Amino acid sequence: MASTADEFRIEKDFLGEVPVPAHAYYGIHTVRAAENFSVSGQRVHPELIRSLALVKQAAALANVEAGLLDPVIGNAIATAAAEVAEGAFADQFIVDAFQGGAGTSTNMNMNEVLANRAIELLGGKKGDYTVVDPLKHVNLSQSTNDVYPTALRVAAIRLLRPLTESVAALQCALQAKEAEFAGVLKVGRTQLQDATPITLGQEFSAWAEAMARDRWRLYKMEERLRQVNLGGTAVGTGMGADRRYIFTVIEKLRQLTGLGLARAENTVDPTQNADVFVEVSGLLKACATSLAKMAADMRLLGSGPEAGLAEISLPAVQAGSSIMPGKVNPVMTEMLTQVSYEIMAGDLAITLAAHAGQLELNAFLPLVAHHLLSGMTLLTNGLERFRQKCVKGIAANAERCKDLVSTSEGLATALVPHIGYSKACELLLKARSERRPLSEVVVESGLLSPDEANAIFSTEELTRPGIPGSRLIKSRTKRET
Known about the structure:
Blueprint: E1 8-13, E2 16-21, H1 28-36, H2 46-65, H3 71-85, H4 104-121, H5 134-138, H6 144-180, E3 185-190, E4 193-199, H7 200-225, E5 227-228, H8 243-257, E6 262-263, H9 268-272, H10 275-301, E7 312-313, H11 331-355, H12 365-389, E8 395-396, H13 398-406, H14 409-419, H15 421-434, H16 438-444, H17 450-456, H18 459-462, H19 470-480
Parallel strand pairs: 5-6
Antiparallel strand pairs: 1-2, 3-4, 7-8
């Protein structure tokens, strides 16, 4: 059925005319971009939209204060921007995340939405840009090349804080398990072969320490992101922006965001260089690496339940098979592994995009923004689910750990200082062949008394620096002499 004239309004640019849905807050530039870049079906990250709205709000207020913009128009734009920053009109940001133009399409989408909302607030009709113009008024004193990188930094900081909290919460959960499992002696393994004993708590302590390092790295990231190029306009020189605006807009943005932002001393640098995002992404990748290793370890320790290691039990959160009754899979560790791999893949994309910038601008910041911000969101959500549905419910299979460690060759290492390497090997082979605990075989040999064997094979002695049992045995020898 043919559309009626009421369904569309006609907007013009220097390329010609384009019909725009009459109800839409966006305009011709957004429609063109939506058609040009309909490639992924993924929208620009909502936090980037909210942060860009805050930048636009700061710009409008700064332009008014500098006497460059009619207060009635400026305040309407600022009100519209505040609404978008709170999440309003989210469905009006329709441009694909994978867009050419260094973010110009996102900036124009924002300019048009704010202009039309401001027109509406002033009693006008959408598309009547004689009231509020997307470029003349909303984009006054700005360029995509300073507002977009600034918004990206603001968005990254705003997502960084909940991510840091999620890492801290996981660290605490792991430390709780460290304390809970402090007395569970188990086989240590190197290269997937039996090694000297360790406690299950000590294994959890290593994961907790890794998270502590990641927590500190993430905390320090914010410092890297605070310097912005707002006021630098097209290439960082500030041409086209009044000096009164330039030195006001940063203060306005600080007030609106509550962040310790600062204008870069050399605004040409952050306009063309994206290495700070590579650094931040690299730290996310470091965290993902630790998480992937931890998830793999937990999956291995929980393998079974009958034919695997089964030293721990992971919480059962869903049925694992459509054909095998009763099967439960370690799905939360699998989820975290995939999240980690996605972060690693995104890091490569960010690295390539940052490298591809040329001369005064990086045209590929939309790719950086997509992977950096979506990666932060993904990692935050993944950590929360993993902590709640996996780590908090992990249980130790203490008897299984005890059985495996009793005949492990790692125990023989503790005997070497007392009975020698060759004799320790001989007794280990005997214990294995007879499927008996090594402690029992060594006492039976007459080489050690039961008390001496108990001293050597105690959990405390086996899992701390020094020669297991040496103090007790030396003390007894001294008393006997």
